[in-house]
Structure formats: C-alpha cells, structure tokens
Design a protein that fits this description.
Bound molecules: pyridoxal-5'-phosphate
Strand order of the largest sheet: 1-9-8-5-4-2-3-14
Distance between the termini: 27 Å
Mean pLDDT: 96
Radius of gyration: 21 Å
Number of helices: 11
Order of helices and strands: HHEHEHEHEHEEEEEHHEEEHEEHEH
Shape: globular
Helix content: 25-40%
Strand content: 5-15%
Structural class: alpha/beta
Low-confidence stretches: none
Amino acid sequence: MKTQQPIKLSLATMGGHEQEYVKEAFDTGWVVPLGPNVDGFETALAEYLGGGRRVVALSSGTAAIHLALIELGVGAGDEVVCQSFTFAASANPIVYLGATPVLVDSEPGTWNISPVLLEEAIVDRKAKTGHYPVAIIAVHLYGMPARMEEICTIAARYGIPVIEDAAEALGSEYKGDKCGTLGDFGVLSFNGNKIITTSGGGALVCRTAGQAAHALFLATQARESRPYYHHETIGYNYRLSNVCAGIGRGQMRVLPRFVARRRRIHTLYSELFREVEEIEVMENPDAGFDSNFWLTCIALKGGKRGATPDKVRLHLASVDVEARLLWKPLHLQPVFSRTPAYIDGTSERVFAGGLCIPSGSSLTDGDVERVASEVIKIVKNEMAG
Ligand SMILES: *Cc1c(COP(=O)(O)O)cnc(C)c1O
C-alpha cells in the first residue's frame, strides 16, 4: 500500500510568473542569448545582492568560475587554492586553464575552508615552488558562509585575490553582507536543484563595471566591436539564453520567500531533532552567519554502534524520501589524487557522518515532520540493534 507522495531533496519550485517572461521572449523574438530578460535578470540580481556589484548572467556557475579565474590572469603553471570539501565544479576550471589546484581542508564550525590551513598552504607553496598561489576559491557549502573575514585578511596579507563560490549560497549573509559580494569575484549557479533555477545557468558577480564588461566580452566569443567578426582574444560561448533568463526573472520575485522557507525548514528540523542525541543539525556558528540553508545537513553522532549516513539514506529511499550523502572531498577523488593538499581530517570526518535531508522550498511542515520521524526511527533502531 502506497499512499504518500515522494519527497525530493531539493526540487525546482516555480513562483508563478516565469512563463510570462518566457512567453514575452517568444512574442518579441528574443529567443537568443541576450535581450530584455537577460538585462532584467542581471539588474534584479545586482539589486538583491547590493554593495554596488555588477552581475553578468552566464550559462552555468562553472562558466562563472572559469571566467573569474581568467579575469584574475590565472594561466598554465599557476597554482590556485580551492576548498577540498566541495563539488568538483569548484576546482575543474582551474584545470581547464592548465593551472594546478591546491586543495585545503575545512574547519568544523562552517565546514568551509580552514583559515589556519589556508595560510599554511600559502606559505608552504611559496617554500616549495618559489611562488604564491595566484587565487583562492572559498566555497559557501550548503549555503553556510565561509569565515570570510579571516580568509580575506590572510589573502590580503599575501596579495592573493579571492573567488567566492556562492553557487549554493544565494541569499546567505555574512556579517550583514550577501554572499557573492564578499570576495573579488562571486559565483552563482541557477542549476535545477539550486535555491532558484533558470533550468541551467549561472552568474559572475564583479566589483567594477570594467570587469563585468570584460567578462561579458569573453562570454560572447571575445567579439570585438567591428562591422565584421574580428577577434584578438580567445573567447567563450558562455552567455545565458534570454529564454532561461525569463525563468530567472520570475524566480527573483520569489527568492526572498524561498530563502525564508528554507530557513524555516531548517528551524523545524532543528526543533524536531533537539531531543535526539544521535543527531546534530548543522547550525550557523554565531550571529555573524546567516545561511540560506539551501540544504539542511545533519551529522550522525552514534559512533560505531550508530546508524551510518548511508543506512539512513537507504531507509529514507525505502519510504520514498530522497536524501544524499555530503560532497565527497576533492582530495579523496581519484581525478585529484596527485594534487597538492593540506588536510587535517575535518572534511573526511564530516563526510563520513553527514547527510543532506530534503529541504526544497515547496516542502510542507508535514513533509518535514515525516522526514524527521523516519530519520529518528532508523537512528533509534540501529542504536537498539
Ligand atoms: C552547483 C555548483 C557549482 C556549479 O554550478 P553549475 O551551474 O552547475 O555549473 C559550483 N560549485 C558548487 C559548490 C555548486 O554546488
């Protein structure tokens, strides 16, 4: 007997106005990678982020990281520091450029790059290679802001620019400023399961109009303004379609509501798990951090006798609830096995005990209660058995 609806990890949720903007693109003939929806989406993002930032809408978050690295002059033979505990897309563009990632472990409070290990890595790379890394990619994993003040202080000490991978953190704030506006460049993603979606897309957040104009130039095949096609630089086809940007404009109208909803879902989980000593919910470390809680993550504290994240995941799957293990740290990925890494075990520990549970903006309180009771059931069972 199966009567309950499946519950997904983070389904794309439409706000209701997306199709109007998409229809407008069709009706006005702007079915191309530029146009009024692209402009409108960029403006809406810039206004939402604040801080006078310029936003360039792109075909993906990965493209945004690639362009940020190019804008910073990263090239073959350079080294770029990247948080190890993240999705591979954070680091892949380093390799596209013939540069080498230097992977750095996390600290336990945010699960993001450890400022202590970051400085160790910078100093050690200089000692070993004679050069400092040329950029730092800090990630706000699951929406939780990284310790940006410490990171930016260290970066400034060695003159190294910071790229914020805020792909999961649109709406998150650190000390009152929006994630994506804290580094030299910010990166956003609008892939299908992110807090808002354009079906696929991303954006580069720039400090100056000049940087934004240059990134836009590179993203449109580095076409010089001549009456014929004239190229002096290698370009990329990275612009966002005006059709997809229409979805984005609709999504921007509901983004504040989605952020509030994801935070509310996280609070509900925290309340429901409060009395369960085997489960710890990932929380903001202090008042300076305000995660969007794109995904609520839990850490299982049962130790050897307790439920493993995968046992919990499989039990949830058996009752039609989708959960996911955490990002497997990049230094454990075969493709990065020969990459220099500065590791103290934090991300491996977190990965071994953690689980992402359903957090989509359209979940009802009843859905959250159902997920929590299934998690508690399996965790208690495992402890007893
Ligand atoms: C989704 C994601 C990206 C890549 O974004 P795409 O739009 O899918 O290319 C990069 N970094 C992190 C942390 C992500 O979660």
